[in-house]
Predict the structure.
Amino acid sequence: MKSYLLGIDIGTSACKVAVFDRNGKVLAAASGDYPVYYPHEGWAEQNPEEWWDAVCRATKETIQKADITADEIAGIGIDGQSWSAIPIDREGNVLANTPIWMDTRAQSICDRLNQEIGQEEIFEVAGNSLQPSYSTAKILWYKENLPEVYAKIYKILQSNSYIAFKLTGAVTQDVSQGYGLHCFNMKKGCWDEKMCERLGIPMEFLPEICDCDHVVGTVTGKAAAECGLVEGIPVVAGGLDAACGTLGAGVIHSGETQEQGGQAGGMSICTEEYKADPRLILSYHVVPGKWLLQGGTTGGGGVMRWFEREFADYERMMKEQTGVSSLNQLNKIAEKVGPGCDGMVFLPYMSGERSPIWNPYAKGVFYGLDFAKTKGHMVRACMEGVALSLRHNLEVAREAGAEADVLRAMGGSANSLLWTQIKSDITGKPIIVPASDTATTLGAALLAGVGVGFYKDYEEAVSLTVKETRRHEPDPKNKAVYDKTFETYMELYKSLAHIMTAK
């Protein structure tokens, strides 16, 4: 009997693979690492073939750890990071590394197109401002800088559609990832031929758009041999990682909101109405008939990973003696510092910044250092800075007509009780943490479950699988402190913006 679902998540630092039963219980999970390449300032790229190698390793490990046979898997769902531009030829070969969501090399192309076509006209069709992080300008960057690659392009794929292609041989484009291209009509959910022409993106590069829970094919014999599956397992198109994580956190109704604590930070507010704002990001939800108004920041959990890598030699040494992870040790020293960090504020713009300031040249800043400050102040300031960027996005969303009442947290940051409480205090919002910290892979698996009839609909899927483990309520006293911190945070960027420009 086919009793299980497989979810695959193509993240920024690693892929994650997990097997779930019908009630959302994780039987086993594994991950596979791969690098981000930074060949020049403003560049951040990955090799999709390394994603596939990691998926194969992690899938084999997951099935082995779960102690199941691959023929018990009813369906496979895939989610992936946003704004890839994977060029493949007719044989399916990857022609170049893909710039990822942190990459800002194509700023000059955006500047030119915004001038030639008009920012308002592009926004009217796409529901998103034209920025270098998106897929659009990356495709045109190939044309202008890698003509030998551009000449061989058959299709441009997204991260999840590339893995679906490797599994099934099907060339696809799901509706939730359409927002990466500004020739995607956000109101209608289809390609806009006229805008393709004006942007200079050939329509033939773009796969046909399908629903996220649509079965695009089945696992081929070749793919089965490479990643430990069996031939014939249905694979759905999948979708954007933030959207799948939103589903996996139980957000399927208008007004419900997911708070993202992975490598990147931000939030996704579910809405049944088209609500676009050039300062934010609008995409389709993986759940049919819904949009997600998103705030996407570069400074999420990745800020703490950076800090741990560069400044936690002592904690890593102590882990050998105590068994306590370096991140948990950093958490402990941050707990000793009061809300507001004694006036210390951190701008978490570690790879430029996306919404709502859209400045690829923005830089991270520690403000308020003096001889009284400790490592604990720096750690807590990092946590607070990420939470302040979340509040900034939520306030802009409210101005756009989308109010978040309760946040549902996902990603590794949600495992920190301190960090989650800081986010609740700074935003003034209650935060619910669902049972599984594998919300993104669960969301991908649920797409497969609905697509193959494992669940009758998304209501049933969420009611069976998403459970609440804890809830954080904002502390009014802390919120009063943080209101002043937020004023400083906003004033800091305003004061420094004129020097955070192209050199």
User: Anything to note?
Assistant: The longest strand covers residues 26-33. The CA atoms of residues 114 and 503 lie 21 Å apart.
